[in-house]
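Progress note, project year one: complex with iron/sulfur cluster.
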Amino acid sequence: MIFNEIESLIDYFKEEIVILAHHYQRDEVYKYGHFTGDSLKLSQLATSQKEAKYIIFCGVHFMAETAAILSGGKQKVILPNLDAGCPMADKAPINEVVSAFSYLKEVFKGKRIVPITYINSTAEVKAFVGRENGYICTSSNADKIFDAAFSRGDMLFFLPDQHLGRNTSYKKGIVGDEIGFWSRKDGLVLSGDKKKIKVILWDGHCWVHQMFQPTHIVHFKRGKEPYKIIVHPECSFEVFKMADYSGSTEQIIKTIENAEDGTYWAVGTEKNLVMRLKRNNPNKTIDILTNFNTICRTMSKIRANDLLNVLKNLKEGKIINEITVSNEIRKYSLIALNNMFSV
Ligand code: SF4
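Model obtained:
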């Protein structure tokens, strides 16, 4: 019943709406996506749909904000359930980020520190990075962004995901006491001489990807079947190092879809995505790397009912759950986004 209603409302609006569904979304919502993908791909696709007056973003809050930044205020962006936030993005409140950065500038006087924020961050943090002429990055381009940032500065300040920052540093040969840590509780933590520091990591993580542990990899590697392990770079450094492959959501999907039939894969990322990969690739053996429940609970707060509610209200001329950003935030966030696009 509810599904028929959603379908007929989608039909009613035709090109006036575009529904975006992130790969981690529940199936009951995912199936309505005009486009599916990761956060940046979806935001870019949405703004290319010029006829669409409304972008309904079935993801989390920072994703809808990114769409609002890129749409330039010309399209209305709607998040079907306002409780769908990202705990990782919330681990970097703007006031803490600003005061940490000014402290670091004092401690490392004379060095140019370039801030980089993972796209999984609030619009305020993106704007802060833009004001400092830094970069936004995604999990698929972080290493290229590291190169670009180092060509313009001496040190990097990486927000908010410490694991993506540490794993990317490792790929660039930056390890041990070359990496500093900004603890939200204790401030700057160094393990050696401050002159050696090249990257400072923010104290943030994704609790979903942090659930994967080295023992889970050992379990699959000890079995009889020749499992390959593929993980998202938001996983911890130990897991990242032990895995056979790592990559963004889109890269994980492509790697498995392009793999030969009969191959075995243990995948370290969000559960809805892994279960969908399993269904869509019946000739391969695909398992999730852990038995823990790695569903992104905040993204899952969006239910088909929320989508229906948004569509019904639109039909009555009411926009509910609109996500907006101020002109100031948009202006500076765009600097950081454009710095990324230029790489
Ligand atoms: S999977 Fe992790 S990083 Fe992604 S939206 Fe959920 S909590 Fe945030």
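The two ends are 48 Å apart (CA to CA).
The CA atoms of residues 20 and 57 lie 5 Å apart.
No further modelling is planned for this target in the current period.
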